[in-house]
Specification:
Length: 287
């Protein structure tokens, strides 16, 4: 069965509401992002599976719905007096460009981009959920440190009061994803569908924005970035030159057509995700 992402969504939201400080605005923003993107994914899956519409929502409809939600989140961040519009650049802590009002579209890009990148990665059994777990684990550390003034000051990273509560949220994503992986590993008996992939990506993007480690997501979620870029390169190359860069995109299908077995593709991309997460966390200590 598909739409197994409903189970992930339910588990994360319930665990978050049970164990976090419900007076924390960041918790509610993260939960709102996850539920809203989950609703978009649910409607898309519903149209495809129940209504029999092969394509579900059109690409424009899906992006528009995601952008509206992300725009609301970005605007709310911008309106908070204590919230900074400066960016934290991995490896270059002394360089923190202030993008001002442009932070709103930037936040929209991060959240929507992360959501769709995870969605594109969800093409093989266990492929998307593995890097999601790795990214959730990494951002559990990032969120906790960002919300702890002593640690944040020592590591010279932005201190975001209250963001430590998001460690419970990302920990819930990790736990729910582990439970889902039991049934999603090769050969999968349950598939997450858009109702799972879209909110998981949006949740990671939202936590990245809240913790002021938006650009770090490019490293932490490097597998998702590679998958998304492979599609972009393929489309641009085919439309401009009439030639394909890869045998098939996203890139995991390219490796399949090269003769790699599905489990080999999945596990090797998991390994890459773990290595990138370790590199990402090491940047927190670099001065």
């Amino acid at each position: 069965p598909t739409m197994g992402g409903v189970l992930i969504l339910f588990a994360v939201v319930v665990a978050t509401l049970l164990w976090t400080d419900l007076t924390n605005r960041y918790v509610w923003l993260a939960v709102f992002a996850m539920i809203s993107f989950g609703a978009v994914g649910f409607w898309d899956d519903y149209l495809k599976t129940v209504r029999g519409r092969n394509q579900g929502l059109t690409a424009l409809q899906k992006i528009a719905a995601q952008a509206v939600v992300a725009l609301g989140i970005g605007a709310l961040f911008y309106s908070l007096p204590a919230y900074s519009t400066k960016l934290s650049v991995p490896f270059f802590k002394s360089f923190s460009p202030d993008i001002g009002l442009f932070y709103i579209p930037f936040a929209v890009f991060v959240i929507v981009g992360a959501s769709n990148a995870v969605n594109l990665t969800d093409g093989l059994d266990g492929l998307a959920i593995g890097p999601v777990m790795v990214a959730a684990m990494a951002y559990t550390v990032v969120a906790y440190i960002s919300g702890h003034k002593v640690f944040a000051d020592y590591l010279l990273i932005p201190y975001i009061e209250g963001s430590g509560e998001l460690a419970i949220f990302t920990g819930s994503i990790l736990g729910a994803s582990l439970g889902f992986l039991w049934f999603n590993t090769y050969p999968a008996s349950v598939f997450m569908g858009d109702v799972g992939s879209l909110p998981l990506g949006a949740a990671l993007g939202t936590v990245a924005v809240i913790s002021k480690h938006e650009l770090l997501l490019v490293l932490v979620g490097g597998v998702f970035v590679i998958e998304a870029l492979s599609v972009i390169f393929q489309v641009v190359s085919y439309k401009s030159r009439g030639k394909r860069v890869f045998l098939m995109a996203p890139i995991h299908h390219h490796f399949e057509l090269k003769g790699w077995e599905e489990p080999k593709v999945v596990v090797r991309l998991w390994i890459i995700a773990m290595l990138l997460a370790l590199v990402s966390l090491s940047t927190l200590k670099l001065r």
